[in-house]
Every structure is written in C-alpha cells, then in structure tokens.
Amino acid sequence: MKKIFSKWGERVKAKLVGETKDRGFQVGVRRTFPISQEEAWRLVASREGLAFWLGEGGIDLKPGQGYETTLGNGEIRIVKPNAQLRLTWKKLGWQRPSTVQVRFLSVDTNKTTISFHQELLPDQKERELMKSYWENVLLGIKEKIHSSFIENPAGKNVTITQQY
C-alpha cells in the first residue's frame, strides 16, 4: 500500500474508491438516453418504474411519505417532477438506510441523462454491489426504451408511445 503524507509530513490514511470523509461510501452511475426528460421521469418515477428499481409496493411520491416495498423501505424526501427524486432507502438486510438521489439532466429535447447517486453505504463491498445494481437498472431502462422503438421503412426510428 502506498504511503501518503500531508504537507506537514504526517502520515494520512489513504481513502478507498467511493469513500467519503465522514459519510461512509458513495456511488454514482449515469447514462444518457435518446428521450425527453418527461419520458425519463415516467420510466423511473411511475408505479412500474419505481417497482423496477425499488421493489413492488405502493409508493406515494410525496415528501415526508414513508414507503415499504419487497426490497426495503424508506422515506421520500424531495420530488421535483422531471428533474429530481431524493429518498432514503433501507434495503432488506441493511442496518441503516442510505440516501438515493435520481436526477434527470437534459440539454436537448430528446437527450436526457438519468443519474443515480447513493450515499451512506457501509463499506466498499456494498458500494461495489450497489454500483452493479444501478448499472443493471440503467441497462433495464435502456432495454425498455429500445423495445419502444421500431424501424420504419424510411430507416428512421419511430417512437411508440406507451404509458409507463
């Protein structure tokens, strides 16, 4: 292990990837999709979308509202439609809840980045597990989007409108 020293010559503990100064571990993943912010919001924040990444169960997206699903429980903290969702999530088997933030970033009408950021993870192992989990969620969203496109005879992608 590489030794790290402060500018005063004191030995400093090297941080692991994703380790924060005082809030455990964090992880963030993002992917850009060829959809509007509104479509991205529907894919993630609709009942079907929430069930996909938070588990089956009734979730009412109102700040202060608690929820319980097949994968855990928590509390909704911030809801800004088409822009941001922030909540606590205590996954089954965890000792403490984490904080999850989902952002929907768009600079173009049909190009939106969906970003999942999670903090307060207990250790590096859980960070790696959740990194894989969020990457799989984004892959599932990509597949959902891809299945809603068809190729028309002119060779252009055509969106099939669906309610999520």
UniProtKB/TrEMBL annotation:
It comes from the Bacteria. It holds the Pfam family AHSA1. Belongs to the AHA1 family. It comes from Neobacillus piezotolerans. This is SRPBCC domain-containing protein. Residues 36-143 form the Activator of Hsp90 ATPase homologue 1/2-like C-terminal domain. Gene3D superfamilies: 3.30.530.20.
